[in-house]
Amino acid sequence: MAQVRISHLTFYYDGSFDSIFEDVSFSIDTNWKLGFIGRNGKGKTTFLNLLLGKYAYQGSIETSARFDYFPYKITERRMELPVADFMEELKEGCEAWRVICELEKLGEGTEILYRPYQTLSPGEQTKILLAVLFSGENDFLLIDEPTNHLDQEAREMVKRYLASKKGFLLVSHDRDLLDACTDHCLVLNRGSIEVQNGSFSSWWENKQRKDRFAVAENEKHQKEIQKLKQAAARASQWADRNERSKIGFSPIKEHDRCINTRSFIGAKTKKMQSRVKQMEQRISREIEEKEGLLQDIETPVDLKLVQLTHHKNVFANIREYSLRYADAECPVFKDVTFTINKGDRIALSGKNGCGKSTLIKMILQKADFASTGGTISEEGVCETAPGLVISYVGQDASGLKGDITAFCKQYNLNQSLLCTILRQLDFEREQLFKNMETYSEGQKKKVLLAASLLTPAHLYIWDEPLNYIDVFSRMQIEKLLVEYQPTMLFVEHDARFCEKVATKVILLSREDTLQ
Length: 515
Known about the structure:
Layout: E1 3-11, E2 21-29, E3 33-38, H1 44-51, E4 58-62, E5 66-70, H2 76-79, H3 83-90, H4 96-105, H5 122-133, E6 139-144, H6 152-163, E7 168-171, H7 175-181, E8 184-188, E9 193-197, H8 200-244, H9 261-290, E10 314-325, E11 333-341, E12 345-349, H10 356-366, E13 376-384, E14 390-393, H11 404-411, H12 415-424, H13 441-454, E15 459-463, H14 471-484, E16 488-491, H15 495-501, E17 504-507
Helix pairs in contact: 4-5, 6-7, 8-9, 12-13
């Protein structure tokens, strides 16, 4: 057991006016199962890189622990090799027998260790790299979003595996994963960093309670400040009026006043002015106590959606539908039957490789939205309503380049409205003027989601829209979809999102399809 002590940490990227961390101090224990929570672009991956010594910084990071990082970098050369041939390059001193023991705990056989890495499914790739990661001893492991692009079954296996481990820092936006695997939280708030005992749900419950208290305290201070300002203004007016009455008076109207009264009036004015100063000091104290109360408040803005109305009630009809790639022995899937009716929010579920994205691409092609780009033979019926307008979000956001202005021109979007939605999704104003190549993966995905929300459509098709998206934005999007109830077809492995949003689940498999 060791501690990692961070003292007065300050870091910013060259050429940037914004500090990622500024005078930050806290400590964590390397025996913890630590969940790392924060909005996109707040510096989670940057902090991991600071622990690994990749960047120069101000302040100090003190520890006797040795760090290791997931995911490992897989080069083109390594893609063609089995992991057994290069695992010692990934982790110094890595032994095959230890990796095999970890693979058994992950429900995988030894054979995937000796297959070329590029032939492994995303789930198998994740599991074998986790097995290498945990094959050492006494390392503090930095795990960065291990479940992205994994199907539900693979996620469950990774969740059970990590729940049995300790001594790691886990970056994830999957609430189920965080609740199952962590016993402490490291949170990047809006204006501070906190370390708390407990899972994500316990932290979120405490945060909501603290936010409500902070809002109530802020309202109380605001009212007190307003009352003090009004009282100070009245006292100041009285003092000024009293001071002006020292010189000059009417002997007829003020027959009881003489020249010696001036000193009395001056003393009275001085007393009033002293009261005004006391009130101003109290106002300053109230303002000082109020400062910082709302710095960490999470108040997600409600998003809006503009839908088009279609004259037909059935948007897509898929009946006994099968797809097969050219020269493939088995179909991608077969005998799929379901309809997309107005108001449906259908979740496509199934293992990686069962054809969810392929089915989406075929529906897009039928609606003249896009081409599949490959030779696919089909059987059965897949048809869409005439004139159907689709708003689509794909899995991959890595191709985003240039700035927001160029992006809006390319896709004919209203730049002002797009920036408004991005601000509602917690984009900093300065981010809107940067090139999108500098964005985090979560920020890139938000650009695609904002463009989709901005595009009026009959049907919204989203393929794994929440990869890399932070927890708070996920809850914003959940609320939007439940409130506006758009017609949707989507693929998403976040169990809580699906529970709240989906009205129907279609399970795909190579053998058969269940509804």
